[in-house]
Design brief:
Low-confidence stretches: none
Helix content: 25-40%
Number of strands: 17
Number of domains: 2
CATH topology of the largest domain: UDP-N-acetylmuramoyl-L-alanine:D-glutamate ligase
Oligomer: single chain
Radius of gyration: 22 Å
Strand order of the largest sheet: 4-3-2-5-1-6-7-8
CATH class of the largest domain: Alpha Beta
Number of helices: 15
Shape: globular
Length: about 450
C-alpha cells in the first residue's frame, strides 16, 4: 500500500463516529481486544499529560533516551504536515506502507462500529509498536487524560503532568480544578509522577490524586528545580541527589528550560532503562520540535518578505502559550523591527486571551482563515477581536497574501519581524508550503 492508500483509509475512519471528540475508553477496549491487546505488549511506557509543553517534553525525553543508545517508540498528536509524524517506531517515523497496512488491519477489525478517529489511530499506533522491539515507549495524551485513548496503559514506568492551564474547556471543564482532575487521570498506583510548574489549584488536585493512588510525586521547586545561570547558554538542574550545569536545550524560549527539567527528572526517576549524564547533555543539544518558536530561513515564504526580514512560526493557541510568545517578542526592538502577527485560530479557542498578552508589542495583526478546517475562526472575527483590544487588526485571504501585504507596507530601512501563529493546523500548512517536512 502507499501514502494514498493510508489517506483513503484515514478519510473513511473519520466517518465512523459523528463526533470528532467523544471521550470514552469502552470503544477502544473493544477494538484492542479484537487486535490481540497490543497495548499490553509494549516496552516500558512513559505517559505524559498536561496543557502546555507536552510535545517539547516528549521530544526532549526522546532525544535523551536515544542519546543513551535506546530504541524509543513515540506517539504524539496532532501531526503538522502528514499523519506519519504521530507514530515514531523505534526512532523513525512510520513508513507509508506499514502505516497503510496497520490502518487497514484496524479498519477490518473494527468494522462499522462507532469509534472516534483518535481512538482507532491510537490502536494503530499500539499495533505498530507491539510488533517492533524497543526499549521505551513515550505516549503523549491527546486530550485530557482520564478518558483519553492513551489511558488504557495500566502500568506505566512513569507519568508526567506538564503545566496545566485553560484549554478545551468544552470537554474538560471550565475550572483549573476540573481540568487538572482530568489530566491527573493518567496517574497510576505505584508509578512515579513528575510534575511541572503548576498553579496552586492544579497542584492541589494533582497532589490529591497522587495520594489516592499511593504514587510518589516529584514537584517542580519542591523536589526538582531549574535555574538560568549567568551564562545564558547554560542552566542549572538540581534535585535531592543531583546538581548539573547543562547546555540550554536546542529549543527557543525560556519555558523550554523547565520543559527540559521535566524530561531530565523523568529520565533520572524511571527505572526501565539506564540513562547516563552524558546522554542528557547530548540529547539537549540536538532535540527538535517543529512549529514551537521555529525560525524559518531560506524558504519560499521568506522570499515574499523584504530582505533582512525575520520569519517565525509557532503553533501555540491558548493564553499560556501567548505568555511564552510575549517573553520571546520582548527581545525584539519594535522601533527597529515592526512586529507583525499573522493569526489563524480554531473557533473554540480564546482569541482575546491569546491576544491580550501581546497587545502592546504588535504593530499589526493580519487575520487569516485556516484552509480546509471547518471549525476555524473567521478571519473577520479574529481581526475584530484584535481591534477591540486596541490592535491594528486587518484580514488577508491566506498567510501568503498576508506576507505579501507586509512586504508592500514595510519600510526598507526597518525590515519586519513576522510571527505566524495561533494554531498547529495553520502551522502545518505553513511548513508544507515552506517545503519543510518534520522528520
Amino acid at each position: 500500500m502507499t501514502v494514498n492508500d493510508s489517506d483513503a483509509i484515514l478519510a473513511r475512519l473519520m466517518k465512523l463516529h459523528p463526533k470528532k471528540i467523544d471521550l470514552s475508553l469502552d470503544r477502544l477496549y473493544k477494538l484492542l481486544e479484537k487486535l490481540g491487546n497490543p497495548h499490553k505488549k509494549l516496552p516500558p511506557v512513559i505517559h505524559i499529560a498536561g496543557t502546555n509543553g507536552k510535545g517539547s517534553t516528549v521530544s526532549t525525553l526522546r532525544a535523551i533516551a536515544e542519546a543513551a543508545g535506546h530504541r524509543v517508540h513515540v506517539y504524539t498528536s496532532p501531526h503538522l504536515v502528514r499523519f506519519n509524524e504521530r507514530i515514531r517506531v523505534a526512532g523513525s517515523l512510520i513508513d507509508d506502507e506499514t502505516l497503510s497496512d496497520i490502518l487497514a488491519e484496524c479498519e477490518r477489525a473494527n468494522g462499522n462500529d462507532p469509534i472516534t478517529f483518535f481512538e482507532v489511530t491510537t490502536a494503530a499506533a499500539f499495533l505498530a509498536f507491539s510488533r517492533v522491539d524497543a526499549d521505551l515507549c513515550i505516549l503523549e495524551v491527546g486530550l485530557g487524560g482520564r478518558l483519553d485513548a492513551t489511558n488504557v496503559i495500566e502500568n506505566p514506568a512513569a507519568t508526567c503532568i506538564t503545566p496545566v492551564s485553560f484549554d478545551h474547556e468544552q470537554f474538560l471543564g471550565d475550572t483549573i480544578e476540573a481540568i487538572s482532575g482530568e489530566k491527573a487521570g493518567i496517574i497510576k498506583k505505584g508509578a512515579p509522577v513528575i510534575v511541572g510548574p503548576q498553579l496552586a489549584a492544579a497542584k492541589k488536585v494533582i497532589s490529591s490524586k497522587i495520594a489516592e493512588e499511593s504514587a510518589t510525586g516529584y514537584f517542580f521547586k519542591d523536589d526538582w528545580n531549574v535555574e538560568l545561570t549567568n551564562d545564558s547558554d547554560y542552566f542549572l538542574y538540581s534535585d535531592q541527589n543531583t546538581k548539573l550545569t547543562l547546555p540550554k536545550p536546542n529549543l527557543i524560549g525560556i519555558h523550554q528550560v523547565s520543559n527540559a527539567g521535566l524530561a531530565i527528572k523523568i529520565a533520572m526517576t524511571q527505572q526501565a532503562v539506564h540513562i547516563p549524564e552524558a546522554a542528557i547533555r547530548a540529547g539537549l543539544g540536538w532535540v527538535r520540535w517543529p512549529a514551537r518558536l521555529q525560525k524559518l530561513d531560506n524558504t519560499p515564504l521568506n522570499n515574499l518578505l523584504p530582505d533582512n526580514s525575520l520569519l517565525w512560526l509557532d503553533g501555540g493557541h491558548n493564553p499560556a502559550a501567548a505568555g511564552v510568545i510575549r517573553t520571546f517578542l520582548q527581545t525584539v526592538d519594535p522601533t527597529e523591527q515592526p512586529i507583525f502577527l499573522i493569526l489563524g485560530m480554531m473557533g473554540t479557542k480564546d482569541v482575546e486571551g491569546y491576544l491580550k498578552p501581546l497587545a502592546n508589542l504588535l504593530t499589526k495583526v493580519i487575520a487569516v482563515p485556516i484552509e480546509g478546517e471547518d471549525g476555524a475562526a473567521k478571519a473577520a472575527d479574529l481581526a475584530a477581536a484584535a481591534t477591540d483590544l486596541g490592535l491594528n487588526g486587518v484580514i488577508a485571504k491566506d498567510f501568503e497574501a498576508a506576507l505579501s501585504m507586509i512586504d508592500l507596507q514595510s519600510s526598507r530601512t526597518a525590515p519586519p519581524f513576522v510571527l505566524i501563529g495561533g494554531s498547529l493546523y495553520l502551522a502545518g500548512q505553513v511548513l508544507k508550503r515552506a517545503n519543510i517536512l518534520p522528520d
